[in-house]
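#structure-requests
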Amino acid sequence: MKDSKAAKAFQRKLLIAWCIGQHATNLTGLQKITGMPRRTLQDCIKDLDDVGIICQFHQKDDARNNQGEYRIESWGPIEPKWINNQIDAIAKSLGVELQALSD
């Protein structure tokens, strides 16, 4: 994997989108899975549309305080199967050790 700042930003977006695609979750869940800071996750999710990935937050019915989960609505030009095959290399390149999310 490339090591430039732009490449790392792209890889981070792919990793976060993959995590959301595998298990729709909220920021706390993403923090547990990736170990990334909340602000980094928020910035990446906000910028997923830069690479054509559409991610939406779905509020739980009758919930307060933004309780809900992120979901990938469209992968756009990104091939999720490729990410599945490359996720270990992407995580290693970013120095992320992915953790399983317990429900």
